[in-house]
Amino acid sequence: DTAVSQTPKYLVTQMGNDKSIKCEQNLGHDTMYWYKQDSKKFLKIMFSYNNKELIINETVPNRFSPKSPDKAHLNLHINSLELGDSAVYFCASSSTGGNSPLHFGNGTRLTVT
Amino acid sequence: QQQVKQSPQSLIVQKGGISIINCAYENTAFDYFPWYQQFPGKGPALLIAIRPDVSEKKEGRFTISFNKSAKQFSLHIMDSQPGDSATYFCASSSGGSYIPTFGRGTSLIVHP
Questions:
Q1: Which of A102, A50, A98, A103 lies closest to B97 in space, CA to CA?
Q2: pLDDT in tens, chain A (113 residues)
């Protein structure tokens, strides 16, 4: 069983489009995250979310928005896609609190043309 | 966001050698220091982690050394194998923060 699953694995789209990436975890974790990994492998936190609080990295454009229908899901919506949005996006989850390990999905490679 | 500085950016070792990756953190409130291993096309996965109440933790060929006064910790891979070739990330977080801070990663290549 896949603990953290993301779909799609690859996403190719044109500038200006709106797209979504889905994430589901079956670990019973309370906290979920979205990270962006650029071509240099740097992992940048975008959002952290649990059932009480959404923490947004202030450097993330408001074209990006997380949506959580329930505790096991945290989807990422991106409006008006730009070339610079091309990257690999990782969903992760953990138990509540910062001193628990993260469990990552296998990523979604987004290419904007 | 508090920084975690990781070095080197890339590392090449021969099979059987020792790989050493270093990290330094700023926030003395951090109390959890994991290392993650990432293979191409996969997400990072927890390799080993340490809390500041101990100075060293060993799991098989992987050891974390922790120096609280210097605010530094390092990953040692003994008897490095080609299968260890991957990108390694250190991270730091605290019980009061939901946002782990990652180093910039080290690309390790182990030659046969």
A1: A98
A2: 679 999 999 999 999 999 999 999 999 998 999 999 999 999 999 998 887 678 778 789 999 999 988 889 999 999 999 999 999 999 999 987 667 899 999 999 999 99
CA-nearest of A5, A10, A4 to A108 is: A10
The answer to whether the beta carbons of residues A92 and A33 sit under 8 Å apart is yes
Secondary structure element (H or E) that encloses residue B88, with its range: strand B86-92
3-state secondary structure at position A44: strand
**What torsion do the CA atoms of A2, B105, A93, A4 make, to the nearest 10 degrees?**
-10
CB-based contact A108:A88 (threshold 8 Å): yes
Q: Which residue of A has its CA nearest to B91?
A: A101
Task: With CA atoms as reference, report the closest residue to A46 among B103, B30, B37, B100.
Answer: B100
Q: Which residues in chain B have their CB less than 8 angstroms from residue A98's CB?
A: 32, 93-100
Strands A87-94 and A103-104 turn out to be antiparallel
